[in-house]
Every structure is written in structure tokens, then in C-alpha cells.
Amino acid sequence: MRNKLKAFICVVIPILLAYALNTKFGDLPPLLKFLNPFTGFWQNAEPLSINKYDKLELKGTEKTVNVIFDDRMIPHIFAQNDHDVYFAQGYVTARHRLWQMDFQTRYAAGRLSEVVGEKAIEVDRYQRRMGMVYGAEKSLKGMMADPKSRAMLLAYTDGINAYIHSLSKASYPLEYKLLDFKPEDWSPLKCALLLKQMSAVLAMGSDEFYMTNIMKKFGPAITADLFPDYPFKEDPIIPVGTKWDFNPLPIPKAPDAFTEMITSTVKTKQAEDGIGSNNWAISGSKTASGYPILANDPHLNLTLPSIWYQIQLHAPGLNAYGVSLPGAPGITIGFNEHIAWGVTNVAADVLDFYQIKFKDITHKQYEYNHQWKNTSVRLEKINIRGANAEVDTVFYTHQGPVVYFQKPKKLKMADNVPMGNALRWIAHEESNELMTFYYLNRGKNYKDYRKALTFYTAPAQNFVFASADNDIAITANGKFPLKWKDQGKFILDGSDPKNDWHGWIPAAQNPTVKNPARGFVSSANQSSTDQSYPYYINWSFGSYERGKRINDRLKVIEKATADSIRLMQSDSYSIFAQDILAALLSKIDPATLNATQKEAFNITSKWNKFYDAKEIGASVFELWTKRLFYDIWDDDFTIASIPMRYPSRDRTVQLILKDPSSKWFDNINTKAIETLADQVNESFKYACDSLGRRYGPIGERWAWANVKSTNVPHLAKIPGFGSKTLMIGGGKSTINALSETNGPSWRMVVELGKIPKGHGVYPGGQSGNPGSPFYDNMIDTWASGKLYDLYLMKSSDDLSITSLNHLTISKK
Amino acid sequence: MVFIVILIVSFLLQLVLPWWIIVAVSFATCGIIGKTAKLSIWSPFLAILLLWTGMALFKTLPNHNLLVTRVAEMFGLHAWWSILVLTALLGALVAAISGYCGYHFRIAAIKKTNS
């Protein structure tokens, strides 16, 4: 008996040991599954030396495809037909970025709990309840309806799957091993989900809940005064005075209730300001070559693996170079032999909340046009690792999903969602953005550009354009709902049909300008137009500072070259400081300052208003104005039970400059009456003291780069997989719009001409594998503000470039 | 002998099977040909220590230790080789325990048939 027990124990111990070291506990990876050198992370250590030639046989290709990887591992795909070019794009993108593509689409689809367990459940519910999957399904319908985009999508999907099916456990991307899950087959729906996620990033900002609360608390007069429909300082995208050569549709009438609300005296996640993107194109008349130059730098939350994936696509009728989104076929921002294009976000008001009156708590019916209308129900099944699956019921009105009945706990991103409201959002429309890029990639001239734009729905973008024919243009483009003015500034009454969207602004009437007299076009997320544009797009846009700086520079530029434009992209001069610094400094009373504060005052007085890496003035100014805005608004606009937003920076600047005795400068929580000067002095001292506490005596460590500490973290925030801290300049309201982890995710400058010359860089590399030398090899070049030459190869045996690897994919 | 057998068999089987096959290999080898308890600890220990160190170096040296340096940082360690030591020691320890258990399993099972 004793021996039996002993024998039993001898068997059990090794089994338990093997089990324990093969299982994930909490956030710890399954230890030996991850560490063993045969299938664990060691297998992801890519050798630095690379084979010159590789051959592959794959079932999915129709003819032989050549892929040249250049000296930065950027693929140049040479295919003999459209199918093969997108198949190969899918294949090589997956080879470099599979985990990123998979993780991002799982996030978009509200499926993170499957991978990380219960801690992601609120985020998953949010994604589902916002209708991300619902929207992706509708988008997919649109993409599959057109034979061209359908073929593109299917070939791309097959290419990704051909790669996934070639994997063994040892060759899974590193993060799968760390988080202990498996790649699953790609599907066209995932491409749609990825595009929805871009909409969520760029067009999900919504202030109506905050604005409604402000309206209720302060009434219409103050709301209109502090939250005006057009900024005090502006330099719109479409130059002031541009004539609209169309007959506008009649503007729908606002319901009486709305007019009453904003005129009667009865009291009944905001987007981060200063973050956005820049693009511009200058006509040949202002360049050294006589041909246009186009520049674009989209600002996003920076992550590794890089957000973008550089690629050249070559097939009959197609030869384009640029960046693609891993998970979507085609090139999003780039150029070909004839044209170049780029995008910035429009920030159109394409997301509205409707207050719904339900008949009873079953939520089966709601009031609409004096009748009871039925809701529909969508069940969202959320699988959870280590727990039972959950089924979430979402009610849909004709407007869209009723996002929440109860406020979710601990989910900051849901703060701006009002309870019991239905969501009407552009991303729920059937759409086919792929066709825009299909035609832009093949575009030859202005006409092709205009045609490509008509296919685009969301997220609305300012599409800048330049061609070798010496045309430049910019269009605020997307599907814009036809609304009455300010429809959606506040929460809408869901029972009144007048509050519905009333069709669309015709695509041809979207704000656009071609070859303006000033010789350049530009955008930086500011107002699309001046106030003469007949339609309502939004009541508030990004602040004007970056746009103003770009336009100031472009007005005086002559004989521009790629290099002068490159330097402009990393320009960090602050128009905000230009507008306000002198006024603030004049209010400081030097007699009340201590030694450190006096030193800071002297430095800031002499500061040249550039957010350069070494500037101490920039650090002081940044913290000072942030604190000042807090001092001015927080007492009035922060109440725990009523989420509100601050008035805009533009309005605050206007108050400081034009209305220094405004009652808003008083802190209502103190007995004394504070003046603007009191607040300016308090905030200045506060900023200096907090810098002193964090960085010691005033000196080198107060330098802006040190305070800002820009870095590029890993997508899943895995320590060790992000970049080091980068000691570089740039600031939110400057052209080089860098903050801690947000900034230019791609910088591109294209010189049009007989042979176009492209230059570009992103903070990262081609490979998504932290074990590859190409994971972050471009970061230092990006940080120093330099660009690489981009090779638009003529053929696969173009000898003018150095290639690392030549991959031949032939039909199996 | 036990050392050589475990080294070769573990190497070959790990090319196609999960890492935990070393548990079975150490257990079986020591269970069948393990001479003493002491040898049944040290032989699998050294075999896996050598095999895993060798394989890890084979992968990481051509990579100039780029990845293992990042992994070390993830674990809050500074030197890349600390991950190598951790990997090889853990694997060797598991093998040693398995070998020891295999040996004692045989002893227990033989005694059982004798009695």
C-alpha cells in the first residue's frame, strides 16, 4: 500500500509541475511555455543576417509575384494582376504584423475578454453597445456589393490566411506566447472592424451630453456666450471668401422645441484639444522645381508595432507607394507616378444622441411622432476567458443602439455617454471606403481624385491632393448628414422626427478648393470653412493655431524644396504663446516671486516661443497655462454629478485678451473676488513650484523634452517592448504636435514631377516583432526630424535600390 | 548513458512536441535505466541545462540578444543572461525532479511486485 502511494506520488508530482509551468496565472505568462527555447520566445529572436533570396509556393496566387524587401525591410510587391497584388499585400503584412492586426480587430469587436479575461469586460461591452460590430457588418455589406472591392477584400483575406496557416506554435508572434492565445483565421469582417476602429478613434468624440448639462446649469445666454458656433480666431481650411459654385439643398427646419431651448430663460469624452494632423500642398509657382510639393503628418496615439505599414503595390494599372493600415488592403496615404494625397481629420458632427421615451421598462416600445414604435434587439455574446460567456442585450431604435441604461463602473471612455439615449453614428452606415483608396492608388489627375472621394463615408477627412499636372486641391470629405444649424450640439429629443438626420449633403457640395490664388492648400483640423458655407458640419473644430502657423509659413515661402518642407513639419513655434504670452507676463507682479519663480519669469520673458527640446520657457508656459485654465474654469465647470466640459481654448484666450474683468475669473469657491491678475500669478507660482518639486532647482532638468518625455509604448503596454524616452521638442499646439505618447504617426513629403520623389518616416519599423532589428529602427530618424527617401521602384529588377531580400511567390 | 539518452531524445522530440515532453523523457529514462537516485537527479538536470542553454544561445546570438534584452526588461531584470539562467535552471530543475520521480517510481513498482 505504501509503495502504491509512493508510486502514485512519483507520477503526480511531474504531471503537476508540467501543468503549473504550462498554465497562465493572472497576468503572468505560462512560464516554461514562454521561456523554453524550442517553442517559447527564444524562437522569435530573428537573426540579423538575412537570406538574399527566398522562394514560396502558395495555392492562393494566380501568377508569380515578386516581393523586394528594401534596406528598411519595406516590401515592394510586383504582381501581374489585381488579385495577386492584394493577396501578397495580405501575406507580407501578416508576416510582419499578424498579432497587431488580430489584437486591434479583437479590440474593435469587443472580444478582448476572450484573451485577457474578466478585466476587459466593460471595454468589450462598450464596444458592442456602441454598435461596432453592427457597423462593421453594415460596412462589409457595402464593400461586398462592389465587385472590385469584394475581390480586393477576398484576395487580401486569403493572403493573410495563407500566412496564418503556415505557422507552427514555435513561430507564433511573440505576444501570442506572452498572452497565451492563438491566431484565428482572418475574415473580411475584420477588415471592416479595423476601419470602424479608425472611425472610433477619429469620429467618436461627442460633447452633447456635456453641452446639455451646461445648458441646463447655466442657461442659453451663457452657453451661447462661452460656447460660440464660430471661433474668435480662425484661419479656415477653405480660404476665406472662396465662392460656393452650387445651389445648396434647402436646410431642414429646426423643431420649435430647440429654438425655445436656446432662446428661453427657463433653466431646465471630450476630444483632446491641440491633437490632430497636418497636411498641405503647394503649387509649382512656389517651389524650386516648378512642380507641387505635398506634405502630410497624421497625429495619433503612437504605439509599437507602428500604426502604419509602408508598402509599394505594383500591378498593371497600379504603381503606388505609401502607408497602409495593417488589416486593410490598398494604400491610405501615399503617391504614385502622377498624384499624391494625404489626410487629416475633419471632426464633423456625425455622432448624435437622442433622448428616448420608452413605454415601460421592457424597452420594447418607444415614442416617435406621437406613436409607439417597436425597438429591435441585438444580442451580443461575449466569451470570457476563465468564466462563463455573457449575453448582453442591446435595444435599437430607428436611430441606433441605446448605449447604456446604467452608467458602467470604472470606464472613463463612457463618461460622455448619456443614459437611456440612442446613438446615431455615421459609422453605422453602409459604406465602402476601400473604393476611395482603390481609385486614389490608381489616380492620374484631379478628375480621378474627385471621383475617388465620392465613395468615402467615414471618418470624414480633409483629403489634400497634388498632381504632376500642377493641380493642388483640398476637400473636407465624407458623408455629412444634412442638419439644421447646431443639430447635435445638444442631446436631441428622439420622439420628434424633425430631429432625425435629413439625408446628406451632396458629395459634390462638400467644402473643396482647387488651385486657390494664394498658391497653397492646407489643413490642421481647424474649421473647414468660413461662415458663408451654407451647411452645418460642426459647431466646434480643432483650434486654429497649427493651421495659422502653417498658413503664415506657406504665405511667405518661395522656391520650396523637400528639405524646407521637411523642416516645416518639425516646426515647434507656438501661435498660442504668440497670442497670449505677452498679456500674461504683463500681469505678473515680480515683487511677490521667490528666487526660482523670478528666474523662471526671466527665462519665460526671453523665451522665443519655440517648443524646442532644451527650452525651459516652454515647460513653464505649458504648465502655467494649463493651471490657469484650470483656475478659471474648474470652479464653474467641474461638478461630480454633472459631467461638463470647459469652454474652448479659443474662447478663453478671447476672454483674457478682450474681457479681462470678466466674472469668470473669480473662483466662486472662495469669499474673495479673484481677478485675472490673481489667477495669472497663482498659476505661475503653482507651475514653478510643481516643476521644482518634480525636477529640482531650475536648470537643465526643467528642459521641455524632459518634462514632456515623449515615448512610444507597446500597443498592449508591455514593459520593455516600447521605446526609450526621446529627448525631442514639439508641442500640442505647434505643427510638430508631439505630446507624451501622441504625435506624428507618419511624416511624408512628396515632390511631384516627371519622376516623383517621396520622403517619409514613422516612429517604429516595418516589423511588429520586438525580436526583429526592424521593430524600431526608424525611431531615431523620426525623432531627429529627418526623413528617408521612399523608393517608387519601376520594376522588380530595378537596380537603383539596395534590397535585403527577394521573395518569389509562385503558384502551388 | 542516461545523460546522453535524455539529451538526444529530448532534442528530437521537442522539435515536434511541446516543452513538457522533457518531463516524460526524464521520467521514463530514469525509470528504465536510472542507476542511482543521485544520478537520476543530476543526469536529467545537466542534460536539459546543456540542451536548453545551447538552443537558447543558438537562437539569441545571431539576434545579438535584442529580444532577450527586451524580455529581461519585461521581467524587471537588467542583464539579458539572467533570462538565460532562469530558462535553463527552471527547465533543468523540472527534468531533475521528473528523473528522480521516475527512478523512485521504478523502485516502488519493483518492490510492489516482490512483495
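Residues 82-108 of chain A form the longest helix (27 residues).
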